[in-house]
Design brief:
Blueprint lengths: L5 E5 L4 E6 L10 H16 L5 E6 L4 E3 L12 H19 L5 E5 L2 E3 L1 H8 L2 E5 L3 E3 L13 H9 L1 H10 L3 E2 H6 L5 E3 L4 H13 L3 H14 L4 H15 L3 H11 L10
Parallel strand pairs: 2-3, 3-5, 4-6, 5-7, 6-8, 7-10
Antiparallel strand pairs: 1-2, 8-9
Bound molecules: coenzyme A (COA).
The site of coenzyme A (COA) has 15 residues, from strand 6.
Length: about 260
Amino acid sequence: MSLEFLLYDIDGDGIATITFNRPAKLNALNSGTLAELEATLDDAKNNAAVKAVMLTGSGERAFVAGADISEFAAMSPVGAQKQSEKGQALFRKLETMGKPVLAALNGFTLGGGLEMAMACTVRVAAETAKLGQPEVKLGIIAGYGGSQRLPRLVGKGIALEMLLTGDPITAQRAYEIGLVNYVVPGAELIGFAKQLLRRMLSNAPVALSLTMQAVDVGLSCGLAEGLRYEAAAFGLSAATKDMQEGVAAFLGKRVPNFEGK
Ligand code: COA
C-alpha cells in the first residue's frame, strides 16, 4: 500500500500503528488522509496478523488538529452533508472493527481529531495534549460524530460546555471527566499505550470482539434489549474453542493459548 499522509506499521505483537504524518499542518485530516485511513483500516480489519490498532500523530505538537480547514471554503451544503456522512462512516469503521483500537494523543486533539479518538476503544493522552471541539468558532458544528459521542462519554452538561465554548481542555481535565483513560508523560506515551493493548491481547480474541459489540449495541438501545443481546453473545462465547482453552488453562494452572476460534 503506498501512503503519502500516513505511516502504517505492524509490530511482532500484532499491534498495527497508524501515524498521521503531516506534522507541518498539525496532522489535519485532508481528504487524502481520510482515504488512506480507510484503506489502512480495511487492511487492519481483514489482516489476521493484526490483533489491535494504535493511532497516533507525527511530531511533538499534534495528534490531529481537526479536519483540514483549507478544504472547507469550496464545500456546498449538500457536499458538506455528504462529507459529514463519509467521516461518520469512516469513524464507525474504527468503532466496529472487532479489534481494540487505542488513540495515543501526543498533542493537539481537536475537532475531527477528537471525534476520531472518541470512536476508538480507549484513549491515552500525553500530559501536553489539548482536547477540544472548536467547530463553532468556524461557524459549523462537529460533523464527524462529536455531538453524539462526546455526551455519551462525558455526559450532557460537560459535552455541551465543550461543544458550545469550543475551548480546548487539558489532558488532566480530560482524564477527570473520563474523556481519556490515562495521562502519561509524552516520552512514555507509546510504550504505555502498547502495554495497555498487550494486556487486552492476552485475553481471548472472540471474547474481546463480542464484548465490544455488546457495549456498542447496548449504548444504542434500551436495557432489556441490551441484556438480551448480552445473553446471546455470552452463549456464543461459551461455544468457542477459546472458552474451552481458558477454562482448561485456569484449572490446569497454566497460561492459556487462545487461537481466536
Ligand atoms: N486545518 C488546516 N490546517 C491546519 C489546521 C487545520 N485544522 N490546524 C493547523 N493547521 C495548520 C496551520 O494553518 C499552519 O499552517 P501554515 O504553517 O502553513 O500556516 C500549521 O498547521 C501550524 O498551525 P498554527 O496555527 O500556525 O499553530 P499554532 O501553534 O499557532 O496554533 C492551533 C495551533 C491548533 C491552536 C491552531 O492551529 C488551530 O486553531 N487549528 C485549527 C483547529 C480547529 O479549528 N480544528 C477543527 C477544524 S473543524
